[in-house]
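For the sake of transparency, this paper describes our internal protein records without simplification. Because each token names a local backbone shape, the row as a whole describes the fold. One such record is reproduced below, unchanged from the form in which we store it:
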Amino acid sequence: MTRTLTNGIRLLLISVLIGIGASCAKKKQPAAVPIDFSQALPPGQMALRKIAPEQYPDFAPAFANANLVAVDTSLANSQQYLARPSSRGYFPYLDISHDRALASVNRLRQIVKRELTNPSASPVSLNAEIARDFEVYQSLGAPDGQGGYTQRVLFTGYYTPILPASLTRQGPYQYPLYKRPADLSSDPITGEVFGQKLADGTLRAYPTRAQIERSGMLAGQELVWLKDRFDAYILHIQGSGKLRLLDGQLMEVGYAGNNGYAPVSVALELVKDGHIARQELNLRRVRQFFQTNPQMLDVYLAKNPRFVFFTQSHGGPFGSLNVPVTPFASIATDKSVYPRAMPAFLHVPVPSGTSGSMTNFRGFMMDQDTGGAIRASGRCDIYMGQGDEAERLAGYQLHEGALYYLAIKPQLIQQNLQADHSESPTPAAGN
């Protein structure tokens, strides 16, 4: 599954310093330079850099978090992914080999399981243990506009919607999700789209969202029907979801490919055109706009050329690594510049409830899903669960923070290659 970033939400944050001269004369304020969190890195540039031990964050709060059980589950899912032979093709990442990635996950899980069963280590000893066994890499973050990087990452949230649906077209159920078409050609491992395979065997660019919807070219390939067009679009953004069928049963749908175009944020297009103030930007506000102005759906959805195809799935929701994602213990990043399945440490405000209150979060999450940014180091999505409550939480998650990754020290790789698979989830099929 390749999933686009949550709800199409982006935010440009401005940090301005006003200089005062030695003579105390008031100088003209320089023009504010917006931080573009989705700006692409140069070709070949990865998103992380190794930092010195004196720059390490305080890891101890991560072991006191209420989500430590979820972290253990997420670590087990990363173990599952890294045990697959196909995962070796994505390493090395910088100086992190596949064996080093697996040993890193194994060692951190040992520490987490120990703290879950016998939480006796002090904050000082926990930080010392991390510094002894791991090297730490920090995200470059967004470019600063002057040739450097801010080390600041914009964290948004995503979730798995649960929506009413029908297996047949009837009554209000008029908006389909489509199966993967037979003429879509892509790499079976990476998912890179080659194009539309024609009858003579040649390839051409696959039709855009607008072309697909206007032509009716996928008639007969409907997987399921929804009763709200914007809900169907949100599933394209999220890449997976759960559906409540008319007989009350739940049906899980997952990602089966896309038409090969980079996503365009409909939410930012609404901001650019003055329909929504940037400070009001969240999923609920975007939904309200289209409920009030349904005639604008054709205009704005067509601005996003990316179109996603679906299949029935089980045991998820799954991230792009085809292992389950865990609420507040899985993140999605641009996999062309961030390492797969690795342990990450976040320091960022997150919602503490659906009222919009925030808490200062410091904890571990595994990088198990793919965001829609193109080679961007300044973006990260936090998975927040399923259903309406998760949607509300995701709507509040729009904050800057710091992002770190842990890799075990090279001399400790061999002794940590054997994974502890106790209480690991059942392996999923696929790569």
User: Anything to note?
Assistant: The chain has a mean pLDDT of 86. The longest helix spans residues 98-117. The chain has two domains: 40-159+322-383+391-416, 162-313. The domain at 40-159+322-383+391-416 is CATH 2.40.40.10 (Barwin-like endoglucanases).
